[in-house]
């Protein structure tokens, strides 16, 4: 069965990413053609990139890198839930991505961006990173506005406003179908 990781891309206290990732997961688990798992980079215990060799070589010497490598390699595709911090993805997510190379190769990625402007630039930033890692990404994305889609910025999704339940389902379908073909 296809395995898709839904990766929470923020470690910030009080973050909204976990709420969004759980929303995506609730939609995803209604499918029976793939298995989905939430991955929280806050629990990965990755320091700033500290491997002496580039990840392209796969010559890891740190136990935290080996653990992260095994975790990421087990999936056929990913949905990145990314905040928009200063028009880019979070440093924590970028760092977690940069630890590895081959583990990401020839897989699929979908995106759910969030922020004051829906995380649009953060997703654009990740698309560039995915291209370098030989990860194919689905064209459409979910963009969740903290201003429109959340009530009082408190982590409570206001589903009746801007969120489109069918939209995330469509992104997941593309990610699953394309992962099956890769």
Automatic annotation (TrEMBL):
Residues 2-140 form the NADPH-dependent FMN reductase-like domain. One of its GO terms (cellular component) is cytosol. GO terms for molecular function: FMN binding; oxidoreductase activity. InterPro entries: Flavoprotein-like_sf (IPR029039), FMN_Rdtase-like_dom (IPR005025), NAD(P)H-dep_reductase (IPR050712). It comes from the Bacteria. Belongs to the azoreductase type 2 family. This is NADPH-dependent fmn reductase. It comes from Bacillus methanolicus PB1.
């Amino acid at each position: 069965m296809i395995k898709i990781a839904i990766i929470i891309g923020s470690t910030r206290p009080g973050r909204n990413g976990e709420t969004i990732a759980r929303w995506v997961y609730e939609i995803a688990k209604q499918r029976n053609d793939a298995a989905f798992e939430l991955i929280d980079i806050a629990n990965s215990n990755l320091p700033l990139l500290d491997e002496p060799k580039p990840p392209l070589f796969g010559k890891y010497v740190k136990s935290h890198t080996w653990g992260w490598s095994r975790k990421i390699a087990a999936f056929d595709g990913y949905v990145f839930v990314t905040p928009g911090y200063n028009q880019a993805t979070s440093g924590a997510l970028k760092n977690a991505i940069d630890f590895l190379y081959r583990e990401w190769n020839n897989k699929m990625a979908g995106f759910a961006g969030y922020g004051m402007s829906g995380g649009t630039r953060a997703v654009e930033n990740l698309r560039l990173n995915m291209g370098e890692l030989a990860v194919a990404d689905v064209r459409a994305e979910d963009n969740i506005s903290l201003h429109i889609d959340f009530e009082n910025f408190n982590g409570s999704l206001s589903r009746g406003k801007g969120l489109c339940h069918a939209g995330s389902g469509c992104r997941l379908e593309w990610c699953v179908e394309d992962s099956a073909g890769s």
